[in-house]
Amino acid sequence: MELETTIAEALRITDGEAEYDEACKTLLSEKILLSWIMKSCLEEYKDCTIEEIAEKYIEGQPQVSEVHVLPDETNASGRIRGSNSEDFSLTEGTFLYDIRFTAIAPGSGKTIRLIVNLEAQSRYNPGYPLLKRAIYYCCRMISSQYGREFVHSHFENVCKVYSIWLCTHPPVELRNTITRYHMTEENLFGCVKEDVQNYDLLTAIMICLGDSNREDTAQILRLLNVLFSTELKLNARKQILQDEFSIQMTQKLEEEMRYMCNLSQGVKEQGIEIGRAEGRVEGRAEGRAEGRAEGTLSAIKNLIAETGWPIERAMAILKIPESEQKMYRDLLKS
């Protein structure tokens, strides 16, 4: 009976993780946070203030997991431009956007639409190069513009796209880094100078988080590390966001942060409970401190067995401190 309960709890963790991911997306879709990311990572906005980006350049309200996007001309009826939506093509397959919205680029002399796709990923190596997926998303966002942003041969109206990936648990060597991948002009023979806006149409950006206690890093990394910290209390996070980044805690923003924190703690506690139950079945718990470690180890095993996740993903979901992760890796190998 206890083993059945353990399996059921493992399924609850999967549901809890999905709910936590959705809460993260909702929080990230706040214009003030998107504005910080845009100013820090997008060339078009580096000279703008956060307030200008949020109030003047982001169009409408970013949407999260709401609308189907049908890019094929054969599926033209009922098209709706949405964000964190499912993009379905009869010929190219199905995938999901987390947050998707449009923005206006300043200082260009004309209006340019930017379609920005933000994906929060806790796993940097999900079985394929994440960068390739980011580039594919860029290409997909460009190809899906036909029939919406331009028709027939009016390719001059193709909008620039960004695919920004926020990785919350990257490999050690990538932590606290921001990397941009984009198109550039290279003359192989002769000298040609094309207008940059005619080829600089897609950019992938990888933001890899690290330690929330580090202050000697880029502002945007400091902000996001604090926002998603599992070590800082909610009040401490709020204070840092207000003092260092002038982000005022509106009731809505505070509620979203609190909800995300509660879900994170809930998923962790459920995982530990699974481990404790499994530990009782196997009779491994020896003492209070050892029992906690055994319970956590069993929770990791259960998540791996039930979901097929790698150990890094399981430990990330259970919010196991980095200082303890090597111990659990060694225990799993023994």
Q: Any chance you could write out the topology, listing elements then pairs?
A:
Elements: H1 2-28, H2 31-41, H3 50-57, E1 58-64, E2 86-89, E3 93-96, E4 99-104, E5 113-121, H4 130-143, E6 160-167, E7 177-182, E8 202-208, H5 219-227, H6 234-245, H7 251-282, H8 288-307, H9 311-317, H10 322-333
Parallel strand pairs: 5-6, 6-8
Antiparallel strand pairs: 1-4, 2-3, 4-5, 7-8
Task: Give a quick precis of the structure.
By secondary structure, this protein is an alpha/beta fold. Helix content is 46%, strand content 15%. It is globular, with a radius of gyration of 22 Å.
The percent range for helix content is 40-55%
User: What's the Cα radius of gyration?
Assistant: 22 Å
How can the largest sheet be summarized? 6 strands, mixed
SS element count, helices: 10
Portion of residues in beta strands equals 15-25%
Question: Which whole number gives the mean pLDDT?
Answer: 77
Q: What's the total count of β strands?
A: 8
- Please identify the oligomeric state: single chain
> What is the molecular shape?
globular
Distance between the termini: 28 Å
Strand order of the largest sheet: 1-4-5-6-8-7
Question: Structural class, judged by helices and strands?
Answer: alpha/beta
- What series of H and E elements makes up the topology? HHHEEEEEHEEEHHHHHH
Descriptive keywords:
15% strand, six-stranded mixed sheet, alpha/beta, globular, 334 residues, 8 strands, disordered N terminus
